[in-house]
C-alpha cells in the first residue's frame, strides 16, 4: 500500500478543498495545451505527409516552360552541372465542357510517357538532392511512368498505348463532378472539339493545391488536371519532336540559382518564360505559406493562453498562501526547511498544470484529427493521416508544467521567506485612512454595500488590478478570435465586390489582336467589356526578384479594378508601375524607385520602369500598368490577353455555350464561382480555426472570473459570515461579494478591448504573407459579442459562487483559530 508523506497528504487535501479554483485553472491550461497540440500535430502530420509524398513520387526541384523547344535539347539539359534528372513534357490549357455545369471549366493537359520514352535518364552515380536523395524508387517500366512529378493512380488503369483520347483525370475534379473511370469529357483542343475518355483518376505532388490560371484560390470543380499520352498530346498541338515544359531534379548540394541561369540561357531561343525553383511553384508555395501560418498560430496562441494560466496560478497561490500563513509558520517550527515548504507549494501548481496538460493533450489530439479532415478537403494527398507524435505531446506537457512553475515560483518564494514568528501572526490589515467614499458628500449617495465594495478595492489596489488584468485578457482573447471572421468577410467583399466586379473573365490561348476585343463584345449577353494585357515577367531590384504577370488595364476601369484594403479604388498613372506593397517590401523599393522588368515572352525586352505607387492590396503579388503605356513599352499594337465581361444574367447560359466552342479561348473564370470557392475553402478554414479559438476563450473567460470570485470568497468568508450573524441577509452579502466582481469586470472590459486590439494586430503582422494580407477590423458587432460573452461568463461564475454563500457554516467560520 502506498504510504503518503505528511506534506503529500496536505497537498491533496488543499487541492481538494480548492477544487473549484483548481479545475478552473486546469481548464485554462488545458485550452493552451490543446491549442499547442492541435496546431503542432497538424503541422507535423502535414509536413511528414508532404515530405513522404515528394520523396516517393519524385517532385521536381526546378520548373520551366517555353513556346516550343526541340527534344534534341534534352541531352544538353541533362548534362547541365547539378542536374540529376530531366523530364520534358507538353502542357496545354484547354476549355472543358462538363455536363454537370453550365459554365466552361479549365483543363490542363499534361503529357505522360506512352510507349515511347520521355526525358533523359538520370546520370549514373548522381542522386537527386532534397526529398528524393538516396531513395530507391519502385521498379517500373522505363516508358510507363513520368520520372519526375509522378502520377499516383487512385482508381482505374494507366493510359493504353495508341489510345489518343484516353486521359487520367485529377481525383479532386472527378469527385467534384462524380466522374468515374469510363466517363467522358468534351474538350476544345487546339480548335477542335474532342471527346476524352477517363480511364483512371490520379494525384500528383505537382498539384497538391490545384489553383486555376490567374487565380489564388483552388477550385476543384472548375479546374482539372488531365494526363494524356505524350504522342497524342504532342500531335494535337503540333509538338511532335518538341516540348514546351521541362522539370528538373537536382543533385545533392547543387545550387538551384546557378542551374536556373544555365537553363534559361538554353531555353531562351525557344520562347522560354523563365525557370523557377520549387519554392516558387504555385502548389508548393501555397503549402509552405499554410504551414507557416499553422506554426505561427501554434506558437503565439498557446503562449497567450498559458501565460494567462501562469498569471492565474500566481494569483491563486499567492492568496492561498496568505490564508495559510500560520500553517507555514507551524511547518517551519516543526523543522521543515524553506526549500521543502517551497517545493510543497510548487507541487500544488504543478499538479494543476499536469491535470490541465493531460486533458489538453487529449483534446488537442481530437481537434488535430478534425483539422486534418478539414485539410484533406483542399490539400490532396494520396494519404493524409493524423499522427500525434510523442515529441509534440511531451512538449505540450512540459510547456504546461513550465507555465505552472513560472506562475507559482514568485508567490512561493515571497511566502516562504516570512520569518516564523511573523508568520504566526495574522497578516496585518490594510492601512486605514479616509478615502473618497468616506467623504460625507459621497457617503450619503452610496449604500452600505457599495461603500464596502469600493473601500475594499481601494485598500487592495494590487489585488484588484491583478483581477482586472486577468479578466481583461479573457475578453481580449474573445475579441482576437472574432476579428478573423470579419477579416475574411472583408477580404471577400473587397476582392469580389470592389476589385473583381466583372461577371466573367475570358483569357485567350495566345495573345490576340485588338479585333478580338470587339468579337468578345459581340458575344450574346455581353453588356460591357474591358480588355487586359498580361505578360509573364521577372521584376528585379538589385539581387531581389519575383516572377509574376505584369498586367495592363485601363487607367480607371469599371470592372477589374485596383483597390486597396480599405476599399478605395486606385487610378493608374499614365506611366510607371503600380505594385502591391508586399511586393515593394520584397524588392525593397518605394515610389520613385526604378525596377528592372524582364519580359519573358515575345521579344523578351529588358525594361527600366519607375514605381509610381504601392497599393496595400489583399491577395497575391501584383503589378499593374496603364494598358496603353504597357503597349508602348512592349512596342506592340493593341494586343490583348483577354477581357473582363459584364453579362446579362438572362443570357449567361448562351454565352457559356459560345465560349465553350471558341478555339481561341483558353480559360474562362466566373467571379461568382471564385467567390464560392473562396468562402468554401479559405473562409471555412478560418471560421473553423476561429471557432476553436473562441471556444477556448470562453473557457478562459469563465476560468478567470470564477477564479477571482472564489479567491475573494475564500478571503472574506469570516467577514461575510460575521455580517450574516449581525443580521445581513444572503442577498445583501451577495451584493457585497458579487458587486465587487461586477465592478472589476466592468473596469476590465475597455482594458481587454485594447489588449485584444493589440493581440489581433500582432497576429495579423505575423500572418501576412505573399498569399494573403489581412486588414485589422474591429467592428461594433465583435466588441458587443465579446463583451456579452464575458458578461455571461461573469454571471455564471457569480451564480456558482452565490450558491456557496447559501451554505456558509456560521459557527465554523467564526471560531477563533488557534
Topology:
Layout: H1 6-17, H2 19-56, E1 62-70, H3 73-78, E2 83-89, E3 91-97, E4 105-112, E5 152-156, E6 166-170, H4 171-177, E7 184-189, E8 192-203, E9 223-229, H5 230-236, E10 242-250, H6 256-267, E11 276-277, H7 282-323, H8 325-333, H9 338-375, H10 390-416, H11 420-424, H12 440-443, H13 448-459, H14 461-499, E12 504-512, H15 515-521, E13 526-541, E14 544-553, E15 577-580, H16 581-587, E16 594-599, E17 606-615, E18 623-626, H17 627-634, E19 640-647, H18 652-661, E20 665-670, H19 671-715, H20 717-725, H21 730-767, H22 780-805, H23 810-814
Parallel strand pairs: 4-9, 6-8, 14-18, 15-17
Antiparallel strand pairs: 1-10, 1-11, 2-10, 3-4, 3-7, 5-8, 6-9, 7-8, 12-19, 12-20, 13-14, 13-16, 13-19, 15-18, 16-17
Q: What is the number of helical segments per DSSP (H or I, 4+ residues)?
A: 23
General form: elongated
Mean pLDDT: 80
Adjacency order of strands in the biggest sheet: 3-4-9-6-8-7
Helix content: 40-55%
Major β-sheet annotation: 6 strands, mixed, barrel
How far apart are the termini? 34 Å
How large, in whole angstroms, is the Cα Rg?
34 Å
Low-confidence stretches: 115-143
Number of strands: 20
Briefly note the structural class of the backbone: alpha+beta
Strand content: 15-25%
Overview of this structure, please?
Helix 14 (461-499) crosses helix 21 (730-767) and helix 19 packs parallel to helix 22. Among the domains are: 60-124 and 140-283, no CATH class; 466-501 and 673-818, no CATH class; 526-647, no CATH class. It has a six-stranded mixed barrel. A six-stranded mixed β-barrel has the order 13-14-18-15-17-16. It has a four-stranded antiparallel beta sheet with strand order 2-10-1-11. The protein is built from 23 helices and 20 strands. The chain is elongated, with a radius of gyration of 34 Å. Helix content is 50%, strand content 18%. The protein has 818 residues and is an alpha+beta fold.
Amino acid at each position: 500500500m502506498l504510504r503518503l508523506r505528511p506534506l503529500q497528504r496536505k497537498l491533496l487535501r488543499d487541492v481538494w478543498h480548492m477544487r473549484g479554483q483548481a479545475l478552473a485553472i486546469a481548464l485554462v491550461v488545458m485550452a493552451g495545451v490543446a491549442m499547442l497540440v492541435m496546431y503542432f500535430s497538424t503541422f507535423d502530420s502535414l509536413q511528414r505527409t508532404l515530405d513522404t509524398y515528394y520523396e516517393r513520387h519524385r517532385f521536381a526541384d526546378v520548373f520551366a516552360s517555353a513556346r516550343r523547344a526541340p527534344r534534341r535539347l534534352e541531352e544538353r539539359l541533362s548534362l547541365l552541372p547539378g542536374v540529376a534528372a530531366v523530364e520534358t513534357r507538353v502542357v496545354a490549357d484547354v476549355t472543358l465542357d462538363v455536363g454537370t455545369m453550365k459554365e466552361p471549366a479549365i483543363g490542363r493537359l499534361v503529357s505522360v510517357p506512352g510507349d515511347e520514352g520521355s526525358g533523359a535518364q538520370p546520370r549514373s552515380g548522381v542522386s537527386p538532392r532534397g526529398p528524393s536523395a538516396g531513395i530507391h524508387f519502385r521498379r517500373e517500366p522505363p516508358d510507363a511512368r513520368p520520372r519526375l512529378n509522378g502520377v499516383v493512380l487512385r482508381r482505374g488503369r494507366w493510359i493504353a498505348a495508341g489510345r489518343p483520347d484516353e486521359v487520367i483525370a485529377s481525383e479532386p475534379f472527378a469527385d467534384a463532378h462524380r466522374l468515374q473511370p469510363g466517363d467522358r469529357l468534351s474538350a476544345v483542343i487546339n480548335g477542335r472539339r474532342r471527346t476524352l475518355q477517363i480511364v483512371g483518376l490520379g494525384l500528383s505532388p505537382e498539384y497538391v493545391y490545384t489553383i486555376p490560371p490567374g487565380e489564388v484560390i483552388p477550385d476543384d470543380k472548375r479546374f482539372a488536371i488531365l494526363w494524356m499520352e505524350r504522342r497524342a498530346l504532342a500531335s494535337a498541338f503540333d509538338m511532335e519532336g518538341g516540348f514546351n515544359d521541362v522539370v528538373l531534379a537536382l543533385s545533392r548540394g547543387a545550387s538551384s540559382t546557378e542551374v536556373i541561369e544555365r537553363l534559361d540561357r538554353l531555353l531562351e531561343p525557344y520562347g522560354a518564360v523563365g525557370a523557377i525553383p520549387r519554392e516558387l511553384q504555385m502548389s508548393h508555395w501555397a503549402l509552405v505559406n499554410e504551414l507557416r501560418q499553422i506554426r505561427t498560430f501554434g506558437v503565439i496562441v498557446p503562449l497567450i493562453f498559458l501565460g494567462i494560466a501562469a498569471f492565474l496560478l500566481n494569483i491563486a497561490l499567492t492568496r492561498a498562501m496568505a490564508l495559510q500563513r500560520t500553517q507555514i509558520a507551524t511547518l517551519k517550527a516543526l523543522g521543515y526547511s524553506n526549500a521543502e515548504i517551497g517545493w510543497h507549494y510548487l507541487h500544488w501548481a504543478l499538479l494543476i498544470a499536469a491535470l490541465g496538460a493531460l486533458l489538453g493533450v487529449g483534446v488537442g489530439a481530437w481537434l488535430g484529427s478534425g483539422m486534418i479532415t478539414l485539410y484533406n478537403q483542399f490539400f490532396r494527398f494520396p494519404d493524409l493521416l493524423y499522427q500525434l507524435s510523442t515529441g509534440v505531446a511531451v512538449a505540450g506537457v512540459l510547456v504546461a508544467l513550465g507555465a505552472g512553475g513560472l506562475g507559482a515560483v514568485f508567490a512561493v518564494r515571497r511566502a516562504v521567506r516570512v520569518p516564523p514568528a511573523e508568520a504566526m501572526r495574522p497578516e496585518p490589515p490594510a492601512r486605514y485612512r479616509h478615502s473618497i467614499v468616506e467623504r460625507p458628500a459621497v457617503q450619503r449617495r452610496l449604500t452600505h454595500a457599495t461603500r464596502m465594495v469600493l473601500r475594499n478595492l481601494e485598500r487592495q489596489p494590487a489585488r484588484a488590478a491583478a483581477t482586472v488584468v486577468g479578466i481583461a485578457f479573457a475578453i481580449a482573447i474573445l475579441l482576437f478570435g472574432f476579428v478573423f471572421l470579419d477579416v475574411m468577410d472583408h477580404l471577400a467583399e473587397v476582392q469580389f465586390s470592389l476589385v473583381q466586379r466583372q461577371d466573367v473573365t475570358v483569357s485567350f490561348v495566345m495573345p490576340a489582336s485588338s479585333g478580338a476585343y470587339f468579337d468578345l463584345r459581340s458575344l450574346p449577353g455581353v453588356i460591357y467589356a474591358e480588355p487586359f494585357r498580361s505578360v509573364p515577367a521577372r521584376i528585379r531590384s538589385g539581387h531581389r526578384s519575383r516572377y509574376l504577370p505584369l498586367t495592363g488595364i485601363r487607367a480607371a476601369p469599371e470592372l477589374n479594378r485596383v483597390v486597396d484594403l480599405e476599399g478605395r479604388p486606385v487610378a493608374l498613372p499614365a506611366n510607371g508601375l503600380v505594385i502591391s506593397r508586399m511586393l515593394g517590401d520584397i524588392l525593397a523599393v518605394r515610389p520613385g524607385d526604378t525596377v528592372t522588368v524582364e519580359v519573358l515572352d515575345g521579344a523578351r525586352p529588358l525594361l527600366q520602369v519607375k514605381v509610381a505607387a504601392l497599393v496595400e492590396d489583399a491577395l497575391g503579388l501584383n503589378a499593374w500598368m496603364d494598358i496603353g503605356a504597357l503597349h508602348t513599352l512592349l512596342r506592340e499594337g493593341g494586343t490583348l490577353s483577354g477581357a473582363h465581361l459584364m453579362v446579362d444574367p438572362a443570357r449567361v447560359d448562351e454565352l457559356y455555350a459560345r465560349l465553350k466552342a471558341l478555339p481561341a479561348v483558353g480559360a474562362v473564370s466566373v467571379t461568382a464561382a471564385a467567390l464560392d470557392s473562396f468562402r468554401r475553402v479559405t473562409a471555412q478554414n478560418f471560421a473553423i480555426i476561429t471557432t476553436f479559438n473562441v471556444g477556448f476563450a470562453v473557457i478562459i473567460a469563465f476560468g478567470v472570473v470564477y477564479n477571482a470570485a472564489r479567491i475573494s470568497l475564500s478571503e472574506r468568508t469570516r467577514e461575510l459570515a460575521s455580517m450574516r450573524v449581525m443580521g445581513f441577509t444572503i442577498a445583501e452579502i451577495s451584493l457585497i461579494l458579487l458587486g465587487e466582481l461586477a465592478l472589476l469586470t466592468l473596469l476590465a472590459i475597455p482594458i481587454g478591448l485594447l489588449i485584444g486590439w493589440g493581440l489581433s494586430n500582432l497576429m495579423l503582422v505575423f500572418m501576412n504573407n505573399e498569399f494573403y494580407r489581412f486588414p485589422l477590423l474591429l467592428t461594433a458587432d465583435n466588441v458587443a459579442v465579446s463583451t456579452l460573452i464575458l458578461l455571461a461568463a461573469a454571471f455564471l461564475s457569480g451564480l456558482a459562487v452565490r450558491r456557496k454563500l447559501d451554505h456558509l457554516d456560521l459557527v465554523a467560520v467564526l471560531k477563533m483559530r488557534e
